[in-house]
Design a protein that fits this description.
Strand content: 5-15%
Structural class: alpha/beta
Radius of gyration: 36 Å
CATH topology of the largest domain: ABC transporter transmembrane region fold
Number of helices: 22
Number of strands: 10
Largest sheet: 6 strands, mixed
Bound molecules: adenosine-5'-diphosphate, magnesium ion
Length: 584
């Protein structure tokens, strides 16, 4: 499918409206022929011919036609406007749905500002095209042709003289469209870039301030701003160059009429009334010419936007739900990794991971930063697909499972907590918006969040998120934990979820997790031995590999990496503990 075909597929639904609009536009174009003709008749028959009783009916006719044209114009503008809003609504909807389907790899590469531009500026160019440009182009072409035909019926030679201008107009239109397209593309790219810059800086404004980098960012912004302005100016220069050419061409028509037409009246080849009629049609020839430059601009803008939106839209996610995926409403939570490896950008991230977990067991994962801990959880949720090996849940390969069903059974508190601009209750109930307040509260109690939430002036109704009350890192982690718990999942993943809470809170949360009645497989990623030492299975990761696995006792007895870490944290240097105390 080409971008244009894709666009027309949206227009199809509004075929009826578009045809109605086109019919009305045609009617208006046909009616435009009447008034110049009548004007000529008034001159010839009333003013010069003395048939005064024709004056009133003719003036009445003139007025009538004008009113009908006005009404029709209002109606078709309305029709095109509603059709354009409809097209835009459908397109925005479809593109957004696709954005939600895209996988992590897509978002890793894409800039937020670019994606935002697709949904705002580019969409608007399309709306403008459907609402305005389509009928103006159509009407201009019709009027131009009708006017020419009418002039031909008046006098062939005069019409032929006027046709001389056409090739020049066509050439100018061609050159302008060729030049303006790349300029618009550049324009759009710069706009996206500027958008991305502003979006990143607004989101990261705390970092900018903390490092006193305002001047530096301002300089960078000015560079982006400059680039955008220059791109705009360059694009404007192109139309500034061509619009006068179109203007001149339309004046040439006037001159031809006055010189050649005037000569013909004097020579008696045409009547004065006919000159007036042709003069009336001149407007119908001129107007399309004057607008041609703008229309080429708008069309070019539209084409660029459709291409940009389409190119984002067609990117297919690698991770896809199978056509007839296995659906099990409640998974038991058995997890197995078989020879799992994952590569991204030619880099081994995870290598040869093997482990097996029974439903209801707790798995602790420990290891240095960048060891691949979060990655194996991402593979379990199928945010990425393995490069080699299989991930099995309840004995079924996750690739064969319905993606949404799989994720529905997993509760995840991610390493970097994201809260929506919503109430705390809304954030916790995100996975189950229809649950009762008691359930929200129970989840909060389990995550040891109820205490601090109740102490807030507005309690569970406090708005958090980007611009909300500043919650501490540990508080956000606990809200995110409550959110994962409320889902009542078969598999619970806690990725570094208690790193910012004090030890006391952590052991409280651990005791609460043990109370989960349903069989729930729990993965705990942590740096503190205390967080995972009671786990049924502990995986020690380093450099993308599992270097040790077993229970706490087994690993301590083995005297490897884990045993050393244990001695460091509990033995000679209780460094971790003192540090945390200082933080809390
Ligand atoms: N999709 C990806 N593309 C490229 N690199 C990745 C990707 N996912 C993870 N990595 C890299 O793999 C390494 C392991 O990451 P991660 O699993 O997040 O480590 P951690 O053990 O700290 O959770 C890191 O160096 C990270 O930058
Ligand atoms: Mg991690």
């Amino acid at each position: 499918m080409t971008p244009m075909k894709w666009f027309f597929s949206f227009l199809k639904k509004y075929r009826g409206k578009m045809i109605l609009g086109i019919c009305m536009t045609t009617a208006v174009s046909v009616l435009s022929v009447v008034n110049p003709y009548l004007s000529g008749q008034i001159v010839d028959r009333v003013i010069q011919g003395g048939e005064y009783d024709l004056l009133l009916p003719m003036i009445g006719c003139l007025l009538g036609v004008t009113v009908v044209m006005g009404a029709l114009r209002f109606l078709f503008q309305l029709v095109f406007e509603t059709a354009s809003q409809g097209v835009l609504y459908d397109m925005r909807d479809k593109v957004y749905r696709k954005l939600l389907e895209e996988d992590f790899a897509f978002y890793n590469k894409k800039r937020t500002g670019d994606l935002m531009s697709r949904q705002t500026g580019d969409m608007d160019a399309i709306r403008h095209f459907v609402a305005y440009v389509i009928y103006v182009v159509y009407q201009s072409v019709l009027m131009f042709v009708f006017a020419l035909i009418m002039i031909f019926t008046v006098n062939t030679k005069l019409a032929a003289a006027m046709l001389l201008v056409l090739p020049f107009t066509a050439l100018t239109t061609y050159f302008q469209s060729k030049e303006v397209h790349p300029a618009f593309q550049r324009n759009r790219d710069c706009f996206s870039s500027l958008n991305t810059f502003v979006q990143e800086n607004v989101s990261g404004n705390r970092v900018v301030r903390a490092f006193s980098k305002e001047d530096y960012e301002m300089e960078k912004f000015e560079a982006e701003n400059d680039k955008f302005r220059n791109a705009q100016v360059d694009a404007s220069k192109i139309w500034m160059k061509y619009v006068p050419v179109f203007e001149v061409l339309s004046y040439v028509l006037n001159i031809i009429l006055m010189l050649y037409g005037g000569y013909m009246v004097i020579a008696g080849e045409i009547s004065l009334g006919q000159l007036v009629t042709v003069n009336g049609y001149l407007w119908m020839l001129n107007n399309p010419l004057r607008q041609a430059g703008w229309l080429v601009n708008d069309t070019s803008n539209f084409v660029t936007s459709v291409e940009k939106i389409y190119n984002t839209y067609v990117e297919e996610p690698d991770v896809k739900t199978p056509v007839s995926g296995v659906v099990k409403k409640h998974l038991k939570g058995a997890v197995e990794f078989r020879n799992v490896s994952y590569r991204a950008d030619d880099e081994d991230i995870v290598m040869d991971v093997n482990f097996k977990v029974e439903p209801g067991q707790t798995v602790g994962i420990i290891g240095s930063t960048g060891a691949g801990k979060s990655t194996i959880m991402n593979l379990l949720c199928r945010f990425y697909d393995t490069t080699e090996g299989d991930v099995l849940v309840d004995g079924v390969n996750v690739r064969d499972m319905d993606l949404y069903n799989l994720r529905d059974n997993i509760g995840m508190a991610m390493q970097d907590v994201f809260l929506f601009s919503d109430t705390i209750e809304g954030n916790i109930a995100y996975g189950r918006p229809d649950c009762s307040f008691e359930e929200v509260k129970r989840a909060a109690v389990m995550a040891d969040a109820n205490h601090f939430i109740s102490a807030l002036p507005e309690g569970y109704d406090t708005i958090v998120g980007e611009r909300g009350v500043g919650l501490s890192g540990g508080q956000k982690q606990r809200i995110s934990l409550a959110r994962a718990l409320l889902k009542d999942p078969s598999i619970l993943i806690l990725d570094d979820t208690t790193s910012a809470v004090d030890m006391e809170t952590e052991s409280y949360i651990q005791s609460q997790l043990k109370k989960i009645e349903k069989d729930c497989t729990i993965f705990v990623i942590a740096y503190r031995i205390s967080s995972i030492k009671d786990a049924d299975l502990i995986l020690v990761m380093d450099n993308g590999r599992i270097i040790e696995q077993g229970t706490h006792e087994e690993l301590v007895a083995a005297g490897g990496y884990y045993a050393t870490a244990f001695r460091h944290q509990y033995g000679e240097i209780p460094k971790e503990i003192t540090e945390r105390k200082g933080e809390a």
